[in-house]
Structure formats: structure tokens, C-alpha cells
Amino acid sequence: MSDSAVMVGGRYRLLRTIGRGGMGKVWHAHDEVLGRDVAVKEVLPPPDLTGPEREVFAVRTFREARAAGRVAHPGVAAVYDVLEEGGHPWIVMQLVDSRTLGDLVREEGPMSPLETANIGLQLLEALRAAHAAGVLHRDVKPDNVLLTEDGRAVLTDFGIATTEDEAPVTRTGILIGTPAFMAPERAAGGQASPASDLWSLGITLYMAVEGHSPFQRDNALATLSAVMHAESAPLARAGVLAPVLLGLLRKNPAERMSLVEAERRLAVIIAGGTTEQTGPVPIPVAEPRSRRRGLRVAAIAGSALIVAVVAGGAAWWSNRAQEPPLDQSPAPAVVTAGPSSSGPEPTRDHESTRPTPAETSSASAPERSPGTASEPANGPSAPQSSSPPTKEPRKTPTGDRKSPTHEPTPTASKTKDETKNEKKTEKPKENKQTPAQAPGAVEPSDQGRKKVKKRR
């Protein structure tokens, strides 16, 4: 068929071919009714489809064209019309004077990270508008990205787009999309999702900045296997764009970078900042789960040990601070006196007070009895009988003093019977203190004792 002679739908004159893909061709056409140039996509069904399958294919194409018509955004090529002619569907779209991103990379080589970030941010805005309308593109790739002379990036070819709430009407065993740019979950037979379009966008930007597709292989099956299982080669030219690419190329869609986060990071790059590391970045390898569990257990055990040591030291210091100081005060003195004529002297307990200066002076200077002989000049005299020093009454807890029931009085002389009785009374005492042993008492000399015996 001649490019200048074909008329589609009675109004669209096909002028020349401007694109070709697995799902058909794209024509530069002229709308004879409205007098404007348009792009017309001829959607060709696979050649091995049967008659009923061709009908199902046509139904799906019309439905996807209606879905693409919902999106109204400057970054999305608008859909004007859809029709059927020659046994297959035709989609009339906005014609954008541009060249595709795929042609630019193949002809001029990789782009700079800043240029790629600018294109990526515009495509993210277009996908945001499509997803908000409930439409998934399912075939984002460099050949579907149009670059205008004024620097705009336009996402086109929503010919295989579908809505999220509609069941797919596709032939069993046929994958819709380009294998090298297909998300792993779709390559494994899963359904498309907004995260699937983000993966395809990540591969598109990877090819723009690195110059090649990371998963392209010699045939479709090998390419799909690489998409599902292989890791991409280390980034050599991405620079500040590397964190965004690695985030979009997470094989698990739940871990994939979100559209909002990708927009934020690309905006920072365009503004002249850096998001994270730059330069060649290897693909992160997940750490074995058993090793991570071991490190977690070791960290918990170390923390518990530190807490135990600190708590034990604090408890020891607290108990030490509460211990009462040792009592280093001297033991109270015990005052004893010699026996009196009236009987044994009562002993003092530990509650008795210390001897007063008056007691000490009375003990050191015993009274003499009248009628006793004077002591010789060559030695100290010994009294016949001496009374013990007068003691203060013992204090009771109520503060009252107890008066002694019997107060010894000095006697002039002692009889032999009284002396014997004193000796009998003194024998049972084991720890008897002599007057010299008592504090403040004066021990009589031997010479004075002999004189007393002679006089008796």
C-alpha cells in the first residue's frame, strides 16, 4: 500500500511510517476533517491467532484505547479516536514533533546523569497522572518516550494499556510488553501493577545513562530469565542517579522505591544536590538471614551483660553507702571499790556513768578513823578500815535517781568476827579488784598493814 494513497476511517490520510514495534506500526497522518497532523497506530494482531481470538484481540484494543483516553496530562500523548478497518484496530493519537529516547541513545550514546534525571522526573509525573486515572501503561521503554526540541519528554503508545479494575482479555501464553523492560513479577506470570511501570521506568533510565539495557540477552526466553534471576551490572556512569536506579530495580515490588520518593530524589539532583553516594555502585547483595539473626542475638546478649554489670555495681555501691560506721568510741570505764563493813559492794552495769572528779578525790584520800594510831614517818599509813568512794545514784530511763538503801559509814575498828565474815564474803568473787586496781584508789602499803595487825 502506498503511504500517500491510504485513507483510514474516511478522514485520516497516512503520510509516512514513523515507528514500528511488536504490536504494529505508527504512521504520520493528516486529519482531513479537522485539518491537523496526527499519529495513527496500526495495531496488528499476532499472525497465529484464530478467528475468535482476533475478535477478542480487537475488543481488548478498543478497551485499552478508551482507558488511555482518560489520561489528560502534558506528558502523555492524548488519544483522539479509535476505529477498526482492514480487520484490525487503529488508534489516532496526538502527533508530537520529536525523536524517541531510544533513537537518541543508539545514535549519540549515553546521556549525562542530570539530563537523565530531568527526563525521569517528567515521566514520573506522566505515570502519576495515568495511575491516578486507574490506567497502567505496561510497556514503558525508550522507544515510547518522545523528546521534543524544547526539552519536553512525552510518554506515548498507550496501545496496550489497561485499567487496574478490569480482567485481562489476552491469549493464553502471550506476554504483553517488551521482555527486556518487563518487571520480574510480570515475567513470572503475575499481574501488572503501578510498581511494574516503575520498574520499566528504571530500566529506561538505566539505558539512557549507561547506554545499554542490563537484562537484554540473545533471545526472549534468556532475557526473561535474566529479568527474574540475574542482577544488573555495576553502574559506571550513573553518578548521583545510582541510588534512584537501584531503588527502582528492586525485584521485589514491595521493596521497590515508590513514585513519590523517586520524584523527591530526582528533584534534588536537578536542583544541584546529591541524594546519596556517587560513582560506580554495585548492586547490593542481601545478607544471609542466619547471619543477620546471629548478629542480632549477639547484640542483645551484649546489651544485657552491660546492663547487668552496671546494675550490680550500682547496688553494691548503694549498700556500701548505707552501712553504719564502725563504733570506735572507747568502752565505758567500770569503777569498783574495796569491801565495806556492811557487806559486798554492789557492781555497776554498762549504763553507769564514768567516775566524777569528786569520786576520784575521795578514793585517793581515804578518811582516818578516830582512835587509830598515826603512821610512822618512814612510810605511808594504812587505815584500819576505809569506806568505798561514795557513788552517785544510778539513773533510770525516766531520769529519776535511785537512792541507795544503805550507805556505809566509817567505823573506828573492826572485830575479828567481822574480818572473818568479810573474808568469807570475798572468797566467792573471782574477778575481785583491789582498791589499787580501781580507778582513783590508793593501795595501802605492807608496813601499815603490819601495824594494824599488831595493834589488834
TrEMBL record:
Annotated segments matching region Disordered: 321-456
Keywords: ATP-binding, Kinase, Membrane, Nucleotide-binding, Serine/threonine-protein kinase, Transferase, Transmembrane, Transmembrane helix
Domain Protein kinase: 12-269
Comp. bias intervals (Basic and acidic residues): 391-405, 414-432
Polar residues composition bias: residue spans: 354-364
Record field: transmembrane: 297-317
Pfam families with a match to the protein in the record: Pkinase
EC number: 2.7.11.1
InterPro entries: Kinase-like_dom_sf (IPR011009), Prot_kinase_dom (IPR000719), Protein_kinase_ATP_BS (IPR017441), Ser/Thr_kinase_AS (IPR008271)
One GO MF term attached to the UniProt entry: kinase activity
Record-listed ATP binding positions: 41
PROSITE patterns per the UniProt record, alphabetical: PROTEIN_KINASE_ATP, PROTEIN_KINASE_DOM, PROTEIN_KINASE_ST
Enzyme class: transferase
Superkingdom of the organism of origin: Bacteria
Keyword RNA-binding listed: no
Annotated PANTHER family: MITOGEN-ACTIVATED PROTEIN KINASE KINASE KINASE 20-RELATED, SERINE_THREONINE-PROTEIN KINASE NEKL-3
Stated name of the protein: non-specific serine/threonine protein kinase
